[in-house]
């Protein structure tokens, strides 16, 4: 008998639907079918592959509201976020549909002959997705991988499989051949691990916790298998006294409480120049109390619940160790709610300052000068994102260059744009996704020499 997982709406704690979990035999069969499909998919003419990806994008576009509604119910995302996320899948497909016809190799001058390079697809790519952004993270993997001529097996997080399953159906509706993109709902310890150990999977794209990511990397090493890791974060939002403090305070809640803080790029540490600390905190408190924390079925909700009872318990564990300086609101009754919470910290050794809480909790600390701000920001095992608020452009650039993280924004909190590379330093990850070069990360560069 097939095991089932009951998907639960985190805002109401009510069951949504039962989803069958893929077992080991089912995973092996899907990988074998994807391997067979690879031989045909890589031979599809580049223009035709591009057209199929554009058609896939159009079908996703026609289902943005349906996909968004699934994410509101499955993951507790707000409508605004969920529509953006479905649109991001469409945009990635459109963007990478330009790649198949532009996978240019090089002609390299050498003595005695002609030398050419080719970008050859890898084969079957395994994409492992976490529960916090089920749609975009899936698309960042499968869109460039398919464009480069690979087939994809994709494992959504066990608790948030609904949008990925629907996107798999939409791929077939758009005319992608069977087994080119296969969605396998199931457990990480079964399906995810099999991507790592199966010899026909030639690359694993893993997004998730640093702890599991290290195990995935060690497993891939056994077969010298390519791996991309997008892991945790503890990003700093650095506010200088010369910044537009009102704008910095008004935007700071969205930089950390978006998606209830379950965001790898959350600016969960705020560093404020000491001379501006009181003014910033006063504006920040006002902005946090104005945040609309509501059941996300309400279109005006700006923050929903945590994804699961387990995640709420984990976040509450951090809050139980500290005094909350101020907090926003949360609904009463059912749902995995935690109010957006602000904690002030003196000692950088505190757990709440060092560890990724992955919930609506932010720790704030003052700093003395630019060098102190950079040193405190870099005093972390992580290095994913960060923001710098200042009116001095030179300082903005200087600090952005000095912070050890993959994605910095000056006077903005944006991290992810499909046009630009995304990924982490240190324990936040390995490799880059998105941007113009992403398809190349799903290829082997082959060199061919022809003697004259
Ligand atoms: P997780 O527990 O590491 O799980 C991530 C994915 O890995 C899930 O699909 C999980 O399956 C699967 N998995 C678990 N054990 C596995 C194993 N032994 N082998 C292969 N796959 C396995 O992480 P999470 O709690 O879902 O996600 C939160 C974390 O993701 C945070 O640390 C966050 O910062 C990080 N994240 C990073 C980025 C980025 O781009 N840097 C983006 C988003 C999230 P199950 O669901 O079945 O356990």
Task: Explain what the structure shows.
The chain has 452 residues and is α/β, with parallel strands linked by helices. It folds into 2 domains: 4-231 and 428-451, Aldehyde Dehydrogenase, Chain A, domain 1, CATH 3.40.605.10; 236-417, Aldehyde Dehydrogenase, Chain A, domain 2 (3-Layer(aba) Sandwich), CATH 3.40.309.10. The protein is 39% helix and 21% strand. The chain has helices at 24-41, 46-62, 64-75, 79-96, 134-147, 162-173, 188-197, 210-222, 245-257, 277-290, 309-319, 351-354, 370-378, 393-402, and strands spanning 4-8, 15-20, 107-110, 113-121, 124-128, 151-155, 181-183, 201-207, 226-230, 236-239, 269-273, 326-327, 341-344, 361-367, 382-383, 385-389, 407-410, 425-426, 429-430, 443-451. Strand 1 and strand 2 form a beta hairpin. Helix 1 (24-41) packs across helix 7 and helix 4 (79-96) packs parallel to helix 5 (134-147). The longest helix has 18 residues, at 24-41. The chain is globular, with a radius of gyration of 23 Å. The chain binds NADP nicotinamide-adenine-dinucleotide phosphate. NADP nicotinamide-adenine-dinucleotide phosphate (NAP) binds at residues 128-133, 137, 155, 157-158, 187-189, 192-193, 196, 207-209, 212, 215-216, 230-233, 264, 356, 358, 384, 424, 428-429.
């Amino acid at each position: 008998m097939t095991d089932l997982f009951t998907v639960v709406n985190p805002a109401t704690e009510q069951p949504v639907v039962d989803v069958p979990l893929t077992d080991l035999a089912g995973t092996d069969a899907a990988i074998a079918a994807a391997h067979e499909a690879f031989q045909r998919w890589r031979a599809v003419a580049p223009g035709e592959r591009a057209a199929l990806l554009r058609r896939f994008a159009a079908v996703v576009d026609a289902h943005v509201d349906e996909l968004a509604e699934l994410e509101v119910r499955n993951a507790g995302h707000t409508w605004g976020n969920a529509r953006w996320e479905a649109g991001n899948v469409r945009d990635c497909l459109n963007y990478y549909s330009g790649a198949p016809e532009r996978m240019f190799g090089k002609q390299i001058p050498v003595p005695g002959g002609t030398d050419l390079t080719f970008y050859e697809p890898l084969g079957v790519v395994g994409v492992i997705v976490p529960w916090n952004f089920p749609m975009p993270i899936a698309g960042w993997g499968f869109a460039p991988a398919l464009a480069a001529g690979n087939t994809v097996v994709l494992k959504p997080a066990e608790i948030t499989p609904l949008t990925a399953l629907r996107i798999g159906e939409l791929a077939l509706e758009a005319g992608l051949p069977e087994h080119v993109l296969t969605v396998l709902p199931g457990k990480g310890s079964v399906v995810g691990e099999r991507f790592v150990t199966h010899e026909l999977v030639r690359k694993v794209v893993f997004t998730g916790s640093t702890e599991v990511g290290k195990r995935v990397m060690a497993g891939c090493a056994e077969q010298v298998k390519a791996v991309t890791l997008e892991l945790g974060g503890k990003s700093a939002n650095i506010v200088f006294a010369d910044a537009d403090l009102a704008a910095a305070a008004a935007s700071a809640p969205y930089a950390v409480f978006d998606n209830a803080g379950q965001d790898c790029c959350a600016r969960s540490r705020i560093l404020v120049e000491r001379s501006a600390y009181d003014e910033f905190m006063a504006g920040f408190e006002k902005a946090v109390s104005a945040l609309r924390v509501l059941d996300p079925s309400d279109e005006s909700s700006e923050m929903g619940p945590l994804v699961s009872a387990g995640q709420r318990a984990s976040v509450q564990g951090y809050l139980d160790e500290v005094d909350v300086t101020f907090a926003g609101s949360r609904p009463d009754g059912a749902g995995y709610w935690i109010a957006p919470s602000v904690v002030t910290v003196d000692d950088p050794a505190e757990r709440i300052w060092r560890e990724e809480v992955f919930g609506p909790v932010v720790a704030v600390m003052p700093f003395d000068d630019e060098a102190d701000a950079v040193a405190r920001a870099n005093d972390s095992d992580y290095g994913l994102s960060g923001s710098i608020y200042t009116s001095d452009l030179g300082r903005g650039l200087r600090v952005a260059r000095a912070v050890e993280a993959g994605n910095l924004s000056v006077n903005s909190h944006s991290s992810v744009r499909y046009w630009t590379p995304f990924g982490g330093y240190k324990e936040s990850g390995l490799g880059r996704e998105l941007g113009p070069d992403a398809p190349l990360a799903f290829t082997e560069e082959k060199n061919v020499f022809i003697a004259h």
